[in-house]
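User: I'm curious whether this sequence folds into something compact or stays loose and floppy. Could you predict its structure so I can see for myself?
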Amino acid sequence: MLIDNHNRTINYLRLAVTDRCNLRCNYCMPSEGIDFARNDKLLTIDELCQVAEILVDQGIDKIRITGGEPFVRKDLMVLLRHLTTLKELKDISVTTNATLIGRHIDQLKLLGIKNINVSLDAINRETFERITRRNHYDTVHNNLIRLISEGFNVRINFIVLDGQNEQDILPILDLMKHYPVSVRFLEEMPFNGGSKTFQKIKWDYKAILAHIVNAYPKYRKLESPATSTSINYQIEGHTSTFGLIPSFSRTFCGSCNRLRITATGDVITCLYGKPKVNLRDIIRGENAEENSKAKILEAVGSRAKTGFDAQKENKKVFDSSMTSIGG
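Assistant: Here's the prediction. I'll summarize afterward.
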């Protein structure tokens, strides 16, 4: 069991498999991309399997695969198949931009990996292409519809960007109202490779909720797990639900149960904090399991209490791109 220095149980790992992405979303990185890690700096699939085993042995029972875009990694399914053999693992999920998932849908279904988060910040083609700087709208739309129709548990992650996509907030709720989908609206965070800085946002979770309930006044708040990052609601007459994730306001820090490991092996105990240790060389050295477990315990034992505290210790936190810190 992993318990941090604030008596919070850590049972959820966000495991990044790559820092690369085939989109160039303007809130995530500059148009030319970032300085992506060399292949020899990335954890191999075997090493990712080993890291997962170590963490599951320490009490992790939920793993979300992230990137970059996970399906950029051609050997991703090898890792996913291995994760399904770990008996103590209760939940395996994937966050994806849905551009490359299509040919893997059948296999994911066979493996029982049905919890898929789709990053989608617009339903209007022009807005989508302007934000992503790519023309994959049809592919994403078709894969999203297929995931929904084939019974996957789909959550759509929509980052609200001032002056870019707020006009799509209500239409995406209307489009999804007949489907068992959760549309989750996230506050923008300044992890964009240094291309933009800000200390406050217009579209915080309160403003997003006010915008939604002005159009849909008949709604109810849903009960959520204590560790949930989203505040969840349902509009009367809608099969779908919607959630608000205060990722910039950071109201959920007190119950945080998450640990991040980047594609290069950095252990990050808070999205806003510095890496605590790098596991890559430890995994490649002698006594890998024993030494890795010790370092993970050390990292978990020195967590910041909140994202604001972590940010104070990490003055250059916003120089990073979300794709390099595991989404």
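Summary: The longest strand covers residues 153-160. The first helix runs from residue 45 to 57.
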